[in-house]
Specification:
The protein is mainly beta. It contains 3 helices and 32 strands. It has a single domain, classed as Neuraminidase, CATH 2.120.10. The strands form 9 sheets. Strands 1-21-18-17-16 form a 5-stranded antiparallel sheet, with no helix packed on it. The protein has a 4-stranded antiparallel sheet with strand order 3-32-31-30, with no helix packed on it. It has a 4-stranded antiparallel sheet with strand order 4-5-6-7, with no helix packed on it. A hairpin with a 3-residue loop joins β19 and β20.
Length: about 450
């Protein structure tokens, strides 16, 4: 499997300096210029413009404000949106246990001690948009014992973690992916708390570029393996090869943590993992690179097969070479696979759930729900919604559809009530959406 070996990029300090120097001005201007999000950047054959070679890349962070009382996102006609659980602490990921209990990983990017004026400016902007805050480092259990869509038990399931994200269950063993490794714990059906100290079974590189500290888990179809996602430690490898060891990959391990190997590589920041229900093929959503322009590079939804290489950092969307990477590796570019389906540039797709329940209309069955966390490297905002991608015969069919919108209070000035992340289906067939800056898990049910 491919492990990239770039040298340090001498342009990275310039890029960072010029980016941060413009953050304040761009925020104050409201970033009215730039093109709105286009459907041309979605689907199996997106339109790719020429890279923007400006030394002054866009940095356009949103500002987070609380949801007003009674306000909620907007779903299509025939659906009802409700606050399943509010007052959470940066809920990022959702996992539904076989008995119907819902687990919510509450974690965030913790603040770091600034080393420069630029560090202080960046930290202020990231706090302002709800990205940086003390991390709760816990998993909360939500139980709807009657299946009515109302939580009647809420309790701390597991605490003392380190930026938890992905969760998985195999038999009587519960797994958690912290930012620095995978842990396992004993579990019995119906448990509302885990007090066991647990066992770390796999070390992972800690943290990452921007919010690339998230580590997701998915159990293979036969239960014999666990897939682990790890995002890159840089934008395009500018921090050197050592910083990217076992990053930008989907890894595979045995349930005891042994047998670590790279399953797929060149995926800059993979997050959601799920099996497509008809073909039983593994799929993921990936956040692509920044600072090439408003409409580069499209984030994507794609199949994940053993040995796949998706180009990062040397190329994007197949064999489009990224000239910023040194040294160039044409030998690897020729091996790069074109992703299956573009999801728009800078939309930050994180959550992925195929709909296999029967409560929604037939149109939604077998398709994919995707939580788009939203852009910061685009003059006009993109993402900040949950979309639905129809599937036919195991592959995406047609353009995506907006499913849950209204997360932005003011798109011109970048005011956001919330940002969707993880998506999951509850025991009744309703869709649950983790809104990390809104501190809410939303429930979308068919009327």
């Amino acid at each position: 499997m491919i492990e990239f070996v770039p040298q340090r990029n001498p342009r990275s300090p310039i890029l960072r300096a010029t980016t941060l120097a413009l953050l304040s001005a761009l925020q104050l201007s409201g970033c009215e210029k730039g093109e709105p999000e286009s459907k041309a950047s979605y689907g199996p054959h997106p339109v790719l413009p020429a890279p923007d070679k400006s030394l002054l890349p866009t940095a356009n962070f949103s500002t987070a404000i609380p949801w007003p009382a009674g306000a909620k996102p907007v779903a299509p006609q025939g659906f009802e949106v409700a606050r399943y659980a509010a007052g959470l602490d940066h809920p990022r990921w959702i996992y539904t246990l076989p008995n119907g209990d819902v687990l919510v990983a509450e974690s965030a990017t913790p603040p770091k001690a600034p080393k420069s004026i630029m560090d202080r400016l960046q930290a202020w902007l990231e706090r302002n948009n709800g990205s940086v805050m003390p991390s709760a480092n816990r998993i909360t259990l939500l139980r709807d014992s009657k299946g009515t869509g109302t939580v009647d038990l809420r309790t701390t399931f597991l605490s003392g973690l380190k930026q938890p994200f992905g969760m998985a269950l195999i038999g009587n063993t519960f797994y958690v992916a912290n930012t620095d490794g995978v842990w396992r714990y004993p579990y019995r059906t119906g448990d509302t708390q885990i007090a066991d100290a647990g066992q770390k079974i796999l070390d992972l590189p800690e943290g990452g570029y921007n919010n690339h500290w998230t580590r997701n888990l998915l159990v293979s179809a036969d239960g014999s393996k666990i897939f682990v996602t790890v995002g890159s430690g840089s934008n395009v490898g500018e921090n050197g090869a050592a910083n990217e060891f076992h990053r930008a990959n989907v890894l595979e391990i045995n349930p005891d943590g042994s047998g670590l190997r790279i399953f797929a590589s060149g995926t800059r920041n993979p997050n959601g993992l799920a099996y497509e229900p008809q073909s039983h093929v593994l799929w993921t959503v990936v956040n692509e690179r920044d600072m090439l322009g408003d409409d580069l590079v499209p984030d994507y939804l794609t199949r994940v097969r053993d040995g796949d290489f998706y180009g990062w950092p040397y190329s994007y969307w197949g064999k489009h070479v990224d000239a910023r990477v040194t040294p160039q590796r044409p030998d690897l570019v020729v091996k790069a696979i074109t992703p299956d389906y573009a999801l728009g540039a800078h939309t930050a797709p994180l959550g992925l759930a195929f709909y296999t329940a029967n409560a929604f209309p037939a149109h939604y069955r077998g398709g994919a729900f995707i939580g788009q966390h939203g852009s910061w490297n685009r003059r006009q905002y993109s993402g900040y919604k949950v979309i639905f991608v129809p599937f036919v015969d195991g592959m995406p069919s047609g353009l995506p559809e907006d499913f849950l919108t209204g997360f932005m209070a003011d798109k011109v000035n970048g005011i956001a009530y919330g940002r969707p992340v993880g998506v999951a289906v509850d025991r009744t067939g309703a869709l649950l959406v983790a809104d990390d800056t809104g501190n809410i898990v939303w429930r979308v049910a068919a009327r």
